[in-house]
Design brief:
By secondary structure, the chain is mainly α. The chain has eleven helices and no strands. Helix content is about 75%, strand content about 0%.
Length: about 350
């Protein structure tokens, strides 16, 4: 999402009067440095999210209900990096828009839609983890393939409705009497659109995530006590049949807790990087669009960074994703010994022990 409301201070223009042409104001050296830095971020966003999509599509172990949301999220973030960030980069670095007024509207619509879709997917992941950790007995019923598919469709359709419709019809700027300089693509929004769009795109999903992860946190604390009790019982019983069953249950609980912890960290990163933008987005129309352009640039790119970080969070905290990434980057998925059904959760030591026990 973009909103460069403080364009006036950077283009030596003012509200009212005849529009003046946009003139780049940064030095050549600073533009080159910014291009290099932002291109590196765009590359990480595109490559990282492509790895997530490829890993889930190839490895059967990663094809779960939760990872259906993760894959769709990665598609949204991949498209943010591929078709939104490059044009935003040129506008940020040059201070001008070179792609015409029509594509400015299309780009703004894509920006709002894809960033909102990314946020919606994160709320669905939190909802999915809530049932997996807090209500495991009804999880399979609540998160059936049909329901997962329906939620993913909602994650794309609702952002489409609040972006392309209002923006292409000009409803987002109804009542705004501001003339933009020629060559400026500033996403000015009126108070009604700013409040409604921010509520739907950010604040309501944020509340869903916070409630879900608070309940998950409380359930994880209870499970930690249960795991401790099971470990004591297993040590007393020894490695008999009952002990093995308890050990399997203990490992399953640990995996669920670790997955919830990982997604909780992703949630925290999401709040850290998007909250400044949406807070300013609501406040700015009520202070007559006085927020400086550089502030909008910083907050906008902080939001984009969220799309770049998700793949690295998966790789750092999830062993299965980490192994899948290494296998893809090392082209090992093309080797005969790396079938799609390979167990990604096993370390080399675990795999050797399994072979010895067979």
């Amino acid at each position: 999402m973009e909103n460069i409301s403080g364009w006036a201070s950077e283009s030596n223009s003012s509200f009212g009067g005849d529009p003046e042409p946009c003139v780049p104001w940064r030095s050549q050296g600073s533009r080159v440095a910014l291009y290099a830095f932002i291109i590196a971020g765009i590359t990480c966003t595109v490559v990282g999210n492509f790895l997530v999509v490829l890993a889930i599509a190839y490895f059967k172990q990663l094809q779960s209900a939760t990872n259906s949301f993760v894959m769709s999220l990665a598609v949204a973030d991949f498209l943010v990096g591929l078709i939104v960030m490059p044009y935003s980069m040129v506008r940020t670095v040059e201070g001008c828009w070179y792609f015409g007024p029509t594509f400015c509207e299309v780009h703004s619509s894509l920006d709002v839609m894809l960033c909102t879709a990314s946020i919606f997917h994160l709320s669905c992941i939190a909802f999915d983890r809530y049932y997996a950790v807090c209500n495991p007995l009804v999880y399979t019923f609540k998160m059936s393939r049909a329901r997962v598919g329906l939620l993913i469709v909602i994650c794309w359709v609702v952002p489409l409705l609040i972006s392309f419709g209002p923006i292409m019809l000009g409803l987002h700027k109804a009542g705004i009497d501001i003339q933009l300089p020629e060559g400026v693509c500033a996403f000015l929004v009126n108070r009604v659109y700013a409040v409604i769009a921010s509520l739907v795109a950010f604040y309501l999903p944020m509340v869903i995530m916070l409630v879900a992860y608070w309940k998950i946190y409380k359930a994880a604390k209870r499970q930690a006590m249960q795991i401790s009790a099971m470990e004591h019982q297993i040590s007393v019983q020894g490695l008999n049949v009952a002990g093995r069953k308890q050990k399997q249950r203990q490992n399953a609980m640990r995996r669920e807790r670790k997955a919830a912890k990982t997604l909780g960290i992703i949630m925290g990163v999401f709040l850290l990087f998007w909250l400044p933008f949406f807070t300013t987005n609501v406040v700015d129309p009520f202070i007559e669009y006085r927020t400086a352009g550089v502030v909008w640039d910083v907050f906008l790119w902080l939001g984009y960074v969220n799309s770049s970080l998700n793949p690295f969070l998966y790789g750092f905290f999830n062993r299965s994703f980490r192994r899948a990434f290494f296998m893809i980057m090392g082209c090992r998925i093309c080797l005969p010994g790396s079938p799609p059904s390979i167990d990604l959760s096993l370390t080399k030591r675990d795999a050797n022990e399994r072979i010895e026990n067979q």
